[in-house]
Design goal:
It is elongated, with a radius of gyration of 33 Å. It is built from twelve helices and 27 strands. Strands 15, 16, 17, 19, 21, 22, 23 and 25 form an eight-stranded mixed sheet that branches. The N and C termini lie close together (about 10 Å). By secondary structure, it is an alpha+beta fold. Helix 1 runs antiparallel to helix 12. Helices cover about 20% and strands about 25% of the residues.
C-alpha cells in the first residue's frame, strides 16, 4: 500500500511541473499579438443609409440622342445626364417652346426669351436672360435642418450660393423632400451667346443680401443705354427685392466669366461665379444658352461642330467650410452679414472642398466625366473659379492649348502638354484628341484627370476626393454610364462614413484585416478555458498530493 502511494506521489510530482509549464505557455495576456492578418475591427454603422448606389439611374431615358422642339440633342451616356428638355428650352428660348416642353423643366416662362433675327442669318439675336441668386444647404427657420439641400459628395452639404435661371414652382424636388430641384444646383450655369447678339441680363435679387453681376472679360460698355451701371461693381449693388439689367453686345468671341462683385472674396467663394462663353457668329447658330451644371454641351455651336465631335465645360471651384457654415448657423440677414463681413477673416481662410462642375469625387463620376471614343476631337473650356491655382493633369493624353482668357492663340503658340497651370479666374481652351498615337492618346481606358496640386484631390483632407474625375472610353462604361473595374472602390467611397472619417481608408475588401482600423481584439476564449482547466488540475493534484501525504503520516 505504501509503495502504491509512493508511486502515485512521484507521478503527481512529475505531472505538476509539466502542467505548470503548459500553463505558462497558454496563459492569456492583457495584450494580444494580432499576427500577420489581424481580425478586422469592423466599424458598426447605425444604419444602411450610409452606403449609396453609385448610380441612381433615375432618368435613363435622358441619355440617348434625341430631337425635342426641332433641337438636335447629342447622346450623353453619363449616369446623370442633363435634362434634354432643359437643353431644348435653352436653345430655343422659353418663349419659343411648347408648354408641354416647358413643363418638363423648372424654368420660368420669362427665364430666357429670344427674338429678332437682326442680321437675317437664321438665328435670334436679341436675348433676354433672367437670373436669381439661390441658397443651397442653408439653415431653415422651421427647424434644425438644412433646406434646398445639394450634396457635393456623400453626406457633404456645404452652404452655397449660386446664380440660377429664373425658375417656377417649388425650390424643392417634391413636397416630401428638402432636396433642391435639379435646376437649382452648383455650379452657376454656363451662359452662351453669339458675337453681335444684343444681350440683356437681368438679376432679380430674391436673396436677402445685395449682389451684382460683373461680366469678367466680356466686351461691355461701362453704362447702359439709360446711363445706369453696367459693370456690376460693389457701389452699384442690387439690393434684396430689386432688379437690374446689364446690357451687352459682345464683339469678341471667347471663354469669359461672370461673378458677383459685392464682397467679392466671400461671394465668389460661396459660388456666385460661372463661365460666360461668346461664340463665333455663324448662320443658323442656335446656341445652348444655359449649360446647367456645366459638363457636356449637348447642343454645340455651329463653329464648334465644324472642328470638334464633342464639347465640355469644366468649372473648378473650392469651398472654405468655415465660410460656408455661416449661412447654416443663422437665419437673420444681419447676423449673416456680420459674421461673413466682419467676424470672418478671408486672409485666414482654407479650401476644404474642391469641386468639378459642382461635385467632388465620387459624384464627379456621375456627371463630371469626359466620355469619349477613339479618334475624336474634343473641345474643353476650363475655368479656374477656386481660390488657389489649378494644375490640370490628364492621364494618358496630351492636349493642346488653343486659347487663353478668351483670346485665341496663334498656331505657332499652341502648346501641347499634359499639365495646364491655371491661375484663379483664368480660362484655358483645350483641344483634346483621342487618336492613339502615343502622344495625344495612349489608347482607350479609364484615364483619370485631376488637379495635380495635392490638395485638389481631397475632400476635407480625405482622398480620393476633390475634383478627381475620369476621361472614360465608352467600352469601359457599364449600361448606366459608370466606369467598370471600380467595384471595390465604389464600396468604399460611395459611403458618407468614409468622408466623415468614421471608417478606415482601406476599410473594405480583401486587405481590410491587414489595413483596416486597429483596435482591441476579441479574447481567445478557448485559450482561457484550457488555461483554467490546467490551473484547476494543478491545484487539484496538489491538494490530492497533500491529502495522500497526510494519510501516510497518520498511518
Amino acid at each position: 500500500m505504501i509503495k502504491k502511494h509512493l508511486i502515485l506521489l512521484i507521478l503527481l510530482l512529475f505531472l505538476v511541473p509539466v502542467l505548470i509549464t503548459i500553463a505558462v505557455f497558454v496563459v492569456p495576456g492583457l495584450q494580444q499579438q494580432a499576427g500577420v492578418a489581424p481580425p478586422e475591427t469592423v466599424y458598426s454603422r447605425s444604419d444602411n443609409n450610409s452606403i449609396e448606389k453609385p448610380c441612381s439611374n433615375e432618368h435613363p431615358e435622358w441619355r440617348p440622342a434625341q430631337v425635342i422642339e426641332g433641337v438636335n440633342i447629342d447622346e450623353s451616356p453619363a449616369c446623370e445626364p442633363d435634362n434634354p428638355y432643359d437643353v431644348a428650352a435653352s436653345v430655343k428660348g422659353t418663349n419659343n417652346v411648347s408648354m408641354a416642353t416647358l413643363m418638363q423643366t423648372n424654368l420660368a416662362q420669362d427665364a430666357l426669351t429670344m427674338t429678332d433675327d437682326l442680321d437675317n442669318d437664321g438665328d435670334p439675336d436679341v436675348i433676354h436672360i433672367k437670373l436669381e441668386v439661390v441658397e443651397l444647404n442653408g439653415a431653415s427657420p422651421d427647424g434644425e435642418f438644412l433646406i434646398n439641400t445639394f450634396n457635393i459628395a456623400p453626406g457633404i452639404q456645404p452652404g452655397l450660393w449660386v446664380y440660377a435661371p429664373k425658375s417656377r414652382g417649388m425650390a424643392l424636388k417634391n413636397f416630401n423632400s428638402v432636396v433642391a430641384n435639379p435646376l437649382l444646383r452648383a455650379p452657376s450655369p454656363v451662359i452662351r451667346v453669339e458675337q453681335g447678339d444684343k444681350v440683356y441680363i437681368t438679376l432679380e435679387n430674391t436673396h436677402y443680401l445685395p449682389h451684382t453681376i460683373h461680366l469678367h472679360g466680356v466686351d461691355h460698355p461701362w453704362l447702359t443705354a439709360k446711363g445706369e451701371d453696367n459693370d456690376g461693381m460693389e457701389e452699384h449693388a442690387v439690393f434684396p427685392g430689386k432688379s437690374h439689367t446689364y446690357e451687352i453686345q459682345p464683339r469678341h468671341a471667347g471663354t469669359m466669366l461672370y461673378h458677383c462683385h459685392v464682397q467679392t472674396a466671400q461671394h465668389f467663394m460661396m459660388g456666385l461665379s460661372g463661365m460666360f462663353i461668346v461664340e463665333e457668329n455663324q448662320p443658323d447658330n442656335w446656341l445652348q444658352t444655359f449649360n446647367i451644371g456645366a459638363g457636356q454641351v449637348r447642343h454645340p455651336s455651329v463653329a464648334v461642330k465644324k472642328s470638334y465631335s464633342q464639347e465640355y465645360d469644366l468649372h473648378y471651384q473650392s469651398v472654405d467650410k468655415k465660410l460656408a457654415k455661416i449661412i447654416q448657423t443663422a437665419n437673420d440677414p444681419r447676423l449673416i452679414a456680420q459674421r461673413m463681413g466682419r467676424d470672418y477673416n478671408m486672409t485666414e481662410s482654407f479650401e476644404n472642398y474642391f469641386m468639378l462642375n459642382g461635385h467632388s469625387f465620387p459624384y464627379t463620376l456621375r456627371d463630371g466625366m469626359i466620355i469619349a471614343s477613339e479618334n475624336e476631337n474634343i473641345k474643353l473650356h476650363v475655368a479656374n473659379l477656386q481660390r488657389s491655382s489649378v494644375a490640370l493633369h490628364i492621364h494618358g493624353h496630351k492636349a493642346t492649348i488653343t486659347a487663353l482668357d478668351g483670346v485665341d492663340q496663334p498656331v505657332g503658340m499652341q502648346i501641347t502638354r499634359d499639365v495646364f497651370d491655371i491661375a484663379p479666374a483664368q480660362r484655358t481652351d483645350l483641344h483634346l484628341q483621342t487618336q492613339n498615337d502615343g502622344l495625344h492618346s495612349y489608347g482607350p481606358g479609364l484615364w483619370m484627370f485631376h488637379d495635380h496640386v495635392p490638395t485638389g484631390t481631397t475632400t476635407d483632407g480625405m482622398e480620393p476626393g476633390g475634383n478627381m474625375a475620369i476621361l472614360a472610353y465608352k467600352p469601359y462604361l457599364d449600361e448606366q454610364g459608370m466606369p467598370t473595374m471600380h467595384n471595390e472602390l465604389f464600396d468604399q467611397v460611395f459611403n458618407k462614413d468614409y468622408y466623415a472619417k468614421k471608417m478606415a481608408i482601406w476599410g473594405v475588401g480583401d486587405f481590410a484585416p491587414l489595413l483596416g482600423d486597429a483596435g482591441l481584439l476579441a479574447p481567445n476564449y478557448l485559450q482561457i478555458i484550457i488555461f483554467g482547466l490546467i490551473v484547476g488540475l494543478i491545484i487539484g493534484l496538489l491538494v490530492f498530493s497533500v491529502l495522500i501525504y497526510k494519510r501516510k503520516q497518520n498511518q
